[in-house]
Fold:
Amino acid sequence: MKTDIQNRDDIIILVNTFYYEVQKNDKIGTIFTDVAKVDWSLHLPKMYDFWESILFGKAVYKGNPMLTHFKLKEKATMQEQEFSEWKNTFFTTVDELFEGGNAEIIKQKAQSIADLMHFKLNPPESRINIV
Ligand code: HEM
Structure:
């Protein structure tokens, strides 16, 4: 039987599985492996901190994800399709491993952060015209 996401150890399992799947994804995998050439030994612990901060309110993550992704957008396509793949992979990974209140919350948080990030990286024309 599946259990809920209860602590940092569960987050570690989630994050490791998610990025294993992300690397294999034919739409966004190469953004990590070829474009950003991610150093996993640095990126994974950063993501444990990030999700622990989001889900359990522990302020262990120090960083600026928006800045990171703005820089990334100069080198890679970061639009509807890419965000959709990211979200689907995240949701599927959570559902395959866990079940419960925190599993639902982490998916909702991921959805809203992803949608906000997508919006900020790709502002609609109307927003540009106002400025
Ligand atoms: C199309 C979707 C996305 C792609 C392709 C993507 C790609 C990446 C890559 C390649 C990095 C590593 C950059 C580096 O180490 O040089 C990164 C970092 C990161 N990503 Fe994403 N990302 C996506 C969406 C998201 C979303 C939706 C979230 C949050 C829910 C997120 C959270 C983060 C965080 C926290 C970091 C670490 C930032 C830092 O402190 O350096 N990413 N992302």
In short: DSSP finds seven helices and no strands in the chain.
